[in-house]
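Example noted here:
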Amino acid sequence: MSLETKNFYDFGDFRLDLTEKVLLRDGKFIPITPKVFETLCVLVEGAGHTIKKDELMQRIWQDRFVEESNLTFNIKMLRKALGDDASNPTFIETVPRRGYRFIAEVKEIAAESEAEITLPKIDSLTAEKEFTGGKSKKIYIPIIAAAVLLVGAITFGIRFVQSSGEGNDAPVLSAPFSSEKLSTDGNVWHAVVSPDGKNVVYLTLNGGKQSVWLRQLESSNNIQIIPPSDDIYVGLALSPDGNFLYFTRRPKLVEGQADIYRVSIFGGVPQKIVGETQGWISVSPDGGKISFVRCYYREDENCSLWIADSADGQNEKKLASRPRPLRIGDNEISPGGKTVAFAAGQSRTGANEFGLVEVDIESGAERELTAQKFFNIKSLAWLPNQSDLLLTASRVPSNTFRIWQISATSGDASPLTKDSETYSALSLDNLSPELEIM
């Protein structure tokens, strides 16, 4: 029998199984959601230290904006699962105005034989069913032509979809599809497909360390581009020729914004090209420019949108800014390379104040792309025809984000999904959209 390394954290009567991604108490499964599990992992790994709220939110939701109430809810559900009391805690202590600290004694264990420690074999799909009362989540959806990438809390896969017409105007969600699973261990949490649809670059999280991998779809080979480290990765983007990866990351437990790096997909030492960014990055169609967001949280300039040379970060130019409390989120350089579409607004009041804006790179002139407003916009991507965009957004204060199609010419907005699933990140190959579910 081959040996398999298993990683556990023991505290009190509990065991946190990083391999199976489950929480056990005296050997019995305790159902918690994937995000609550991630929250527990971050706290346990930093046991004895105060983990600031911003750090927790960045680790758990990466480049996705969420309200602090999401973290508060996770902590509440975690305390309920552990039987903990917020006023007299055994496990999770609240540090007022700062964050949380895991105060129980934690023992880390690595076992190299299943015979050494016998645990119930509970896969992540079983865990999800138990938590939801037997109703498993749908993980995949059909989308228009070519490669469509989906990442979920349980699985990570690629779908190949046949177009039902010429060009790129096949009806969304109406084409037949097939699927190929890339991972079922739940460790993949963000990915982008190459413009030619032949490769997928993705991030993995194992044992608290993150690494970057390349999957060659034709051969199914997996190649590590960047080895595991404690650094926190935020965003990913590929150059138009698919030869260079741009990513944002920052050191663990270090406050501040993330830096943008550039590295060949064939490996090598990443080159830092831009400092102090929020993680939303886009590369121009000719590969010469990169757009990004900075947030210094000042009254007159809460967040700003920038563009610079993609090779070395030179010739930075501010394209737009927003005062507090407004912020700028995801942004995408248009297929023509002359404008940048970006999400801007605020979600603090619960109102629909997030909109979609386009700015001219040369003149800085802005125009509203649609009159439709949202509670929040997570991700957006131009369709190849340059007259439409896809975005993931929610119109009400909830965790359910649908896929919308926006006409950049008429401003018409149409929801493309109407189910109860939530859809997060979007990117495109040369033919069709790629979707990530979180």
Summary: Confidence is low (pLDDT under 50) at residues 1-5, 112-179, 433-438.
